[in-house]
Structures are given as structure tokens and as C-alpha cells.
Amino acid sequence: MIGAAGRRGDDIRSDAFIEIEPRSTGGLDLAVRSRVDAYYGESIRTQARARLATLGVEHARVSIEDQGALPFVLDARIETAVRRAGLGDGRDGAPARTVPLPAPSSRDRLRRSRLYLPGNEPKFLVNAGLYRPDGVILDLEDSVHHDEKDAARIVVRNALRAVDFLGAERMVRINQLPAGLEDLQVLAPERPDVILVPKVESPQVIAAVDRILDEMLADDARPVWILPILESALGIERAFDIATASPRVVALTLGVEDYAADLGVSRSSDGLESDYARRRLVNAARAAGVPPIDSVYGQADDLDGLREWGERSRALGFVGMGCIHPRQIPVIHDAFAPTAAEIERALGIVRAYESALAEGKGVVSLGSKMIDPPVLRQAQVLVAQARRAGRLHGSEPPRGGA
Fold this sequence. Notes:
Elements: E1 3-6, E2 15-22, E3 28-34, H1 37-54, E4 60-67, H2 71-84, E5 113-118, H3 122-125, E6 135-139, H4 149-162, E7 169-173, H5 180-187, E8 194-197, H6 203-216, E9 225-230, H7 233-237, H8 239-243, E10 252-254, H9 256-263, H10 275-288, E11 292-293, H11 303-316, E12 321-323, H12 328-335, H13 340-358, E13 365-366, E14 369-370, H14 373-388
Parallel strand pairs: 3-4, 5-6, 5-12, 6-7, 7-8, 8-9, 9-10, 10-11
Antiparallel strand pairs: 1-2, 2-4, 13-14
């Protein structure tokens, strides 16, 4: 059985096509064609032989068509082709880590933008951090064809070991359970920051993911968070129970396209069909003590529409949203940033609190108005958000702030 993996063609970049034909004797017959053969041909051959040896392949005809694949991609394509050819002895094919694990992701970190990246498209993974999203989503679900799920899983695993996402939170969207269980087995050991669980309709699904993570990461204190995606009427109605199903749940979000399909309607530009779901999700998330994150805006070229959507989304209580193209990132960051007037008012409240505290007063007031504790807390959170978003500078955070 011949095993093949990857992409080929003149329009392909940052990828490779591998074909492996098993043989019973004769060693390795390795043929390499590369657009950069003069510079890296020998390195490609050396790496291929080393990866095949690691996977236990001794006898095979191996053809490599390279279109500028980085080492982690070449390793992934070779491993996938080996598995598909029925070769190897079941050894772990993960390459050595070439970038250190970043600092653990905090529960309350900034999550304004999450850039979706198809897990089987290496060209999108390599430079994603340069666009400065708050998070990158290495996607194994909707953006990956069913026949390529195994290949995407290996590419994403290798990317988590080899790609520096420049401070972006590293998220992985697994497949809907039970198919997503295999994704967890392969990817949880790589310590992604967040696991996105799609099409969640019951708290039991989140509890199951939580148990698996506990079992797999029992000896590691590094947090791996869970972000449920609600994409159906039933999921929305159970939003609070889902949000409280695990202490790992770090936020709640929804998928508007699938939700609209579940309702039997088309998604509109004004979002009327998802208005109830979005409001319900915001309320459930806040009641559960986690932030709500909005869905994606599907028109990548309509930046004015995106800005309007983002501003309405923030007004509803969302803290961020997904994005499908890098050009959407700065627009989303602006839409979800506190305005100058909001920052000034919040600073006034925080200063009044600090002054009252210094004077030993039990009552905080601004002008002639008393400041209730919820108003103070909201102001402290907004000031902290403004500082984290770069809208406010200063080394001394407000006392008691987020």
C-alpha cells in the first residue's frame, strides 16, 4: 500500500508532498525534488533519512516533492505518509522541541482577537504571530477535510513544538466529541494554552474533556484551559451549565453560522437571527464568572461592517471575537478597546477610591455622587483592561484592580 501526504503543485508553498511505497528489502530508495535543492537539498535528504529511521522504516521507495517546507512540516508529512502506508512500528514520531514553551497562560489574559488557522495549511501557521492576535486557533475541525484529519493532527502537534507564535495564546480547536478524543490524546501532551471544544450541547461533554486533561496532565501544574463553543439552540439553552461544568472553562463563545443553520435560517449582516443567542450567552457567561467571546465576522473584506459589529458586540458585553483574516485583527482590537471618555471616567472613580482610602473614609464619592462597590469594581477592571491594551500607561495598577 502506497502512502502519500502533503501538497504539491506550482502554487503550493511552505509544504511538501511525500509518497512512500513499502518494500521488503533493498533499504531506502530516496528521491528528492525541491525548488531550493541547490541550497537545502542535502539537508532535506539527511532529515528525511533520520525521520524515517526514527519511525522504524528501513525498506521503502520514498519520493519527496518539496515546495519550501520548513523542517517541522517535512517531518509531519513524512510521518503521515508512513502511517498511511502501514509502515513504522508505532513509535512516537514527534520531533524534538525547537522553541521553548511560553509562559503559562493566565485565566484573565486579554482575549480580544482569536485568529483561526487551518491545521493542515502550514503556510498559515508559520508567520501567524507577526499579525499580533491575542490568540491563534490551530483548527482541526471545520477547516480540515475529513480525509486530512490525521495529517492536520500531526502538523499541529509539530507546530506546537517548532513555531514561535510571538506571545499569542496557543489554542487548538479539536473535533466534536467523540472524534475529538483522539485529538486530545495527541495534542494535550504538547500543553496548548486552550482547548476549544466545538458544538457543545451538554455539560457532560466539558466534564469529559476535563477528566481526560486531568488524567493526561496529572503531574503538570501548567494550566490547559477549556473554551466551549455553543453552536446550536440546545447548547445556548444550556449555556450556564456548560460554563460551570469545569474549573478549566476560561470563557464561553458561540458559532453563529452553525447556530443559524440549526434554527433553519440564513445568517444576516445585522445578526438579527443570533441576537437572542448572543445575549443569552453573555448573561450565562457573566453569571458563571467567565468572559463571553463573540463569533467571527464572516466578511473578511468588509472592515467597516466588522468595526460596527465589534462595537455592538462590546456594547452587549462581549470581550472579543474570532477572526478569519489577519486584516481583521487591528479593527477588532480598536472596536473592543475602552474609549477615551470611558477611561477618563474610570480613572476618576479609581482616584476617588484611592483618595478616600488614604483619608480613612468609609464612603467613596465622586462629586456629589456616591460610588457603589460594583461601580468601583467595573472602573478598576476597565482601567486594568486599558493598561493591558496599551491605551493607558503607568506602572502602578489601581489597588484592588483586575
